[in-house]
Amino acid sequence: MMSELEEDSLKLPVLDLTQPDNIESSFLSSLLKACQEWGFFYVTNHGIPINLFTKIREFSNHIFNLGSDTKLKLGPSSCLKTYTPHFIASPYFESLKVSGPDFFDSSKASIDELFGQHKPEFSEILQEYGNHMMKLSKKIIEIILKSLGTGYEKRFLDSEFGNCHGYMRIVNYTPPSNAEENQVEGLGMHTDMSCITIVFQDELGGLQMRSKDGKWLNIHPCKNSLVVNIGDLMQAWSNGRLRSSEHRVVLRRSRNRFSLVFFWCFEDEKEVIAPNEIVGNGNPRIYHPFVCLKYIKFRESNEVGKFEKIGYTVKDFAGLNV
Ligand SMILES: O=C(O)CCC(=O)C(=O)O
Ligand SMILES: [Fe+2]
After folding, report:
1. Fe2OG dioxygenase domain spans which residues (predicted)?
2. Residue 48 CB partners (closer than 8 Å, separation 6+)
3. Which residues constitute the domain of residue 93?
């Protein structure tokens, strides 16, 4: 059971991509402030057709409605490992992972295994969604770089972020029947291991972030907008100028909650090190350089930090005591 009293709401900037190359400098500074303080903002006019969300939601419902024996064919002890069953992240959470850049092939492997036959429509939709998300992630990072310094997008976008990859997680939250009275955690407090994460959450809401002073604040669903949050890799790359905030999902209704979460990450072999310009003259470095995959492995191999539960993060892994 959790207390309602601690919760509050948060006014976050909305990045409007109608004219991505003409964003006012006053907006860039409010975006940067939000990334420093909250690590969260919204993006709108992102160009992703609404019916893609609807179709993915409908089709994934078919999958989540299958029996658990069938779903476990993709489970943690199978070779595909794309399905995370209940009781790993939380009793109420299950998810399906689809990896890029070939979202078609990645989902096809899972669907073939589940249904014993190929259903190309769903793989096509996921490929379309993945392509949109890859482009959108790059556009968003470009704008974040601009907000960090004039011309930084030209200096760093291709050289540092040119080999980023993405994967998505389709999540089905099944709350207990008494969730209306006692809200429960659908996904516990964690930080993301990405550069940035882009979240579509359904109309039920429930995503919350933790402020620097430890308060839980609601990230409300905002019509036609997606939620963007800074991940650990970007926090390290920016020498802590951008914040990878702890967040969680609470369930307050007895209805299932759907979310579609896209993680955009550095390539495994990349050495993550903040460029001198980003650190700034006279400022101490707060992380030592590390290879991206080593951090992912560190998180996965840590009992406390296993899956999405927070235990250790990039600060514990690469933080310097300054
Ligand atoms: O389901 C959501 O809205 C967010 C999930 C999340 O934070 C994650 O998968 O990392
Ligand atoms: Fe997350």
Report:
1. 164-267
2. 129, 132, 133, 136, 226
3. 14-318
